[in-house]
Amino acid sequence: MLEQFKFTQVKIGGPISRDELKAALFRQSKDWHVEDSGATRANLAESAGRSVSSRRLRTVAELMRTVGASEAWEHIVLSDGLAAISVFIEPHQQRPVSQSGLARRGAINVYTRPVGNYWVTVVAKRLRKR
Prior knowledge:
Layout: H1 18-21, H2 24-28, E1 39-41, H3 44-47, E2 58-67, E3 71-79, E4 83-91, E5 101-105, E6 108-115, E7 118-126
Antiparallel strand pairs: 1-2, 2-3, 3-4, 4-7, 5-6, 6-7
């Protein structure tokens, strides 16, 4: 773990400066690298021939995220109102197959596996208790 955030008081509203949002380690590290994964709205069914259909889940957003100079990831966000599910589809890289599988941390579940020439990662988070 690099950094952990805990809130003892939350104030809603009012101006927040960008400096207040910077991580503490960012100020201390000379080698810190920030990767801006710029996102643009997309119609993945139209551009990539991908779609997700479900009677329970609705598509909240479809995005193309750029990582580095040339890589592009597809990002689909789904929700049923109780849970949010993000599906990331990235070009297949030299990633060991051992990185596939399920990981859980509290209310967040992450499942990754290779599918054809892509790695698919599904991140699910419970939004509220039933």
